[in-house]
Specification:
Radius of gyration: 23 Å
Number of strands: 15
CATH superfamily of the largest domain: P-loop containing nucleotide triphosphate hydrolases
Helix content: 25-40%
CATH topology of the largest domain: Rossmann fold
Number of domains: 2
């Protein structure tokens, strides 16, 4: 592993995690040589579909799991050799709630402080400040069981910050929240990064969340790094516009033959899953290509639904580098030759 020299808040070096199969089931390779680095004071997003290895990575970096091979440092500390020291400088918010529903919000934070070695007066002061910062002061004496999902999630984050960590890990922090609660959580994450100079590692499968929050972004698929950069850099790497067509009971071979003669259409990818499918491609002239694609599909008798054209999105970035849409990695796809860039 390269020396940290305090230039990186996190270094992951060739992390591999294999879960042994049971009975007739094969081993599961959750991570397959994953490497990346995180600069201090940044919001670093790990973006990938369910099963991509995001939570496994977080569990290793937070000392809750050990890699089969590879190594990692957090705040210059080896996560295996100095696990206790790592736990002292990190906060961790898992996918499930970590607060006690029977206790009040204030009691939860005070207990979290005491468990982190704070004395009673200091833990009370810290609890009051966090409740105020997270907009929970008016609910400080209410049992957490009466909280909405968004309120409980904000309390989970507050509890992870009670000891003023250097690095905060958020594992799918907005899953299950309604749009209003999700927006409130996004605002809190941005505030923490800006005001507290906190390094935040965010795992998510929401494209919009990654685009809105991440200063730096790593796309992962099947335990491997796909491509890394800022959201703007990744989208700018794709020239032209995206064209997408929803297909009905598609025959990929027939669809590809139908659009083969459409001028200016590149990076054509056709996916079929049951009765649904999608045609995705890139073009320098979306206005001309959309009409030509519709005409070609009509002429071939191919049924389709919504047709759209847009500037590059993170979904397009994932499609370009991985070769299938951002969803079930087991989807069947027939892809044109594309150039992948591994981080």
């Amino acid at each position: 592993m390269p020396a940290n020299n305090n230039s990186n808040a996190i270094i992951a070096d060739s992390l591999t995690k294999v879960y042994p199969g049971r009975g007739r089931k094969s081993d599961v390779r959750a991570l397959d040589g994953l490497s990346f680095a995180v600069s201090p004071g940044r919001v670093f997003g790990l973006l990938g579909p369910n099963g991509a290895g995001k939570s496994t990575t977080t569990r290793i970096l937070t000392t809750l799991s050990t890699p089969t091979s590879g190594a990692a440092q957090v705040a210059g500390l080896d996560v295996h050799r100095a696990a206790d020291a790592v736990r002292a400088v990190i906060g961790y918010v898992s996918q499930g709630s970590s607060t006690d529903p029977v206790l009040t919000a204030g009691e939860n934070l005070e207990i979290a402080g005491r468990m982190r070695g704070m004395n009673a007066p200091d833990s009370r002061v810290r609890a009051r400040r966090l409740l105020d910062e997270f907009g929970l002061a008016d609910a400080s004496r209410r049992r957490v069981s009466t909280f909405s999902g968004g309120m409980r999630r904000r309390l989970d984050v507050a509890a992870a910050l009670v000891h003023r960590p250097q690095v905060l890990f958020l594992d799918e922090p907005t899953t299950g929240l309604d749009p209003e609660a999700r927006a409130a959580m996004w605002a809190e994450i941005r505030r923490l990064s800006a005001e507290e100079a906190l390094t935040v590692v965010l795992t998510t499968h929401y494209m919009e969340e990654a685009d809105r929050l991440a200063d730096d972004l790593l796309l992962v698929n099947r335990g491997r790094a796909v491509v890394q950069g800022t959201p703007e850099q990744l989208k700018a790497a794709l020239h032209g516009d995206s064209v997408r067509v929803s297909l009905i009971e598609p025959d990929p071979t027939a669809v590809r033959a139908a659009v083969a003669a459409v001028p200016g259409l590149t990076d054509v990818i056709i996916e079929a899953s049951g009765v649904d499918g999608v045609l995705a491609a890139r073009t320098d002239d979306a206005s001309a290509s959309v009409g030509a694609v519709i005409g070609a599909l009509d002429a071939a008798g191919i049924r389709f639904g919504q047709v759209s054209a847009s500037h590059p999105t993170l979904d397009d970035v994932y499609l370009h580098f991985v070769g299938h849409t951002f969803g079930d990695s087991a989807n069947t796809s027939e892809a044109a030759d594309t150039t992948g860039v591994a981080a």
